[in-house]
Amino acid sequence: MGLDFVRAIVSDAIPSYSLESRLVDCNLIAKIRHTTVERLVGRSLDGLPLEGFDYESMHLGVVLGDADRVHAYFRGISLAQNSPKDFLDEHNKARVEVGVPPLKWNDTVAEYAQNYANSKIKTCEMEHSFGPYGENLAEGYNEMLGTDAVKFWLTEKQFYDHKSNECVKDECGHYTQVVWGTSTHLGCARAKCDNGWMFVICNYDPPGNIIGQKPF
């Protein structure tokens, strides 16, 4: 990635100024931030919290022609609480509580999750893929963080009775899949649906929720 990429982004965002004049005024960064991030990460920023951005740091990267710095900077912002580490951390905190080994990220599983999420962009239907992996789904209007989805699944902990190995009063299958002891690999993804909702999916390999078995 080179300066021409950044130049094209800036030109798209503020077509009435020359590149050099745009880079002089740090205030103009506010005008190009959405176009820059959306082009770099390939999705809309609608609903993404933008408070606390370090504009001067990003501006320096553009002035110096360091497009990689700009890319890394915005990738870090856009993926906040949606990165593989974030998904893993939320899962593994719950798994530590019940004494099962931590999950590890798997790119193949994550690719499967992303492909399925992308297939739901038009309809946003909450229906399972019925593929080879365990699966948890969630949706939230506008911008649902990956960590929020995992926390939502974990609210079902209160409904799982370990002694009887049954759900009590409400469903608990999302929770039991999160903490399923023999599931070792995780892959998660999100997709913004055409109706404005965010579709979130996590897949687990091997799958959990095996009838007749306990998660831990």
UniProtKB/TrEMBL annotation:
Keywords: Disulfide bond, Plant defense, Signal. The lineage of its organism: Eukaryota, Viridiplantae, Streptophyta, Embryophyta, Tracheophyta. Residues 82-212 form the SCP domain. It comes from the Eukaryota. Belongs to the CRISP family. The keyword Disulfide bond applies. It holds the Pfam family CAP. InterPro entries: Allrgn_V5/Tpx1_CS, CAP_dom, CAP_sf, CRISP-related, HMG_CoA_Rdtase, HMG_CoA_Rdtase_N. Gene3D superfamilies: CAP, HMGR, N-terminal domain. This is SCP domain-containing protein. GO terms for biological process: defense response to other organism. The keyword Cytoplasm does not apply. It comes from Flemingia macrophylla.
